[in-house]
């Protein structure tokens, strides 16, 4: 495998003296050799090869990643929604008088039909109840405590262990080659910032996500704090992703990685830039190690983006075929 990697780099015109450091070892050991892995290696090699025709200065090597379904799993429900449901149950246990009120009643009864009725009014109530009316510090503590004790219902792993080992390697590899790696996700920005640095090596300032209104105020003792209001400010999904990239990053990515139709506009925006570009889509095809889903899934639906990706020659990563392992410590 090492020999094939080195020969591929030499075939691309990289001499043994001028080749980047990753030619000596495999930087993506959890990826199977194939078109997807080679596309990544070739792209990173050419944009980081100083003096080469496709060289991109390090300050412009921006890589953006969706989170749910791209960096960690998202089935059977988005993990942030699972957090909200678990938090509703915790609050109801502490305050029994809440059990007869919505959304507590439906959550405790596991009545997803009721929660989803009226355009998801109950789910929205659950999110508002568990994400607002508190300081940003208090919210971060609650999320951190949940991550410490909660376990995925079928995999029985901590939620922050439901990350994809091949993607953790890719993030690390990109940073070693002068890239800045960003999360650009529809998930809540303050939710993701609790674990992003420890889990992915992505610091809080490089996390772009959906956000609610946060206001500054003084607490009862005159100390400054930030308070989360029950009002949406920015939705970082679909066409909101390129807008968020422009607002919070200020540079068009040269590499973008997604897994659903919610990432389509980010991929289009990235691919449409000048110079070398790499747009990648994870296709969830592994029903044994993870889940197999795409066009008809209510979670992480991949339909239009899959068609456009294939038509435009984007890199489609087949999870079953392209990844040796999915989760850390698992085959």
TrEMBL record:
Residues 1-23 form the signal peptide. Pfam families: HAD. InterPro entries: HAD-like_SerB, HAD-like_sf, HAD_sf. Pathway: Amino-acid biosynthesis; L-serine biosynthesis; L-serine from 3-phospho-D-glycerate: step 3/3. The keyword Signal applies. Keywords: Amino-acid biosynthesis, Hydrolase, Magnesium, Metal-binding, Serine biosynthesis, Signal. SUPFAM superfamilies: HAD-like. Its cofactor is Mg(2+). Its EC number is 3.1.3.3. It comes from the Bacteria. The keyword Amino-acid biosynthesis applies. It catalyses: O-phospho-L-serine + H2O = L-serine + phosphate; O-phospho-D-serine + H2O = D-serine + phosphate. This is phosphoserine phosphatase. It comes from Bosea robiniae. The lineage of its organism: Bacteria, Pseudomonadati, Pseudomonadota, Alphaproteobacteria, Hyphomicrobiales.
């Amino acid at each position: 495998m090492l020999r094939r990697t080195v020969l591929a780099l030499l075939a691309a015109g990289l001499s043994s003296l001028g080749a980047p450091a990753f030619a000596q070892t495999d930087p993506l050991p959890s990826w199977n050799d194939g078109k997807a892995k080679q596309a990544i290696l070739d792209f990173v090699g050419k944009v980081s090869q100083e003096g080469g025709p496709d060289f991109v200065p390090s300050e412009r090597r921006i890589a953006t990643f969706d989170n749910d379904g791209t960096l960690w799993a998202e089935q059977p429900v988005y993990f942030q929604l699972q957090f909200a449901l678990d938090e509703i149950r915790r609050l109801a246990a502490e305050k029994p008088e809440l059990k007869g009120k919505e959304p507590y009643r439906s959550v405790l009864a596991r009545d997803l039909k009721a929660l989803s009725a009226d355009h998801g009014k109950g789910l929205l109530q659950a999110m508002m109840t568990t994400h607002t009316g508190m300081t940003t510090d208090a919210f971060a503590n609650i999320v951190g405590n949940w991550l410490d004790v909660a376990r995925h219902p079928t995999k029985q792993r901590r939620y922050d262990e439901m990350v994809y080992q091949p993607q953790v390697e890719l993030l690390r590899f990109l940073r070693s080659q002068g890239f800045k790696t960003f999360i650009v996700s529809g998930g809540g920005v303050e939710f993701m910032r609790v674990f992003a640095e420890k889990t992915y090596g992505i610091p809080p300032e490089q996390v772009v996500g959906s956000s609610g209104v946060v206001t500054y105020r003084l607490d009862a003792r005159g100390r400054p704090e930030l308070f989360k209001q029950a009002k949406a400010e920015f939705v970082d999904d679909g066409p909101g992703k390129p807008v968020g990239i422009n607002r919070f990053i200020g540079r068009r990515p040269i590499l973008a990685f997604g897994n659903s139709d919610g990432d389509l506009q980010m991929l289009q925006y990235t691919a449409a830039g000048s110079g070398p570009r790499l747009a990648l889509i994870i296709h969830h095809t592994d029903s044994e190690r993870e889940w197999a889903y795409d066009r008809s899934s209510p979670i992480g639906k991949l339909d239009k983006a899959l068609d456009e990706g294939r038509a435009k020659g984007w890199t489609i990563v087949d999870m079953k075929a392209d990844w040796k392992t999915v989760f850390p410590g698992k085959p």
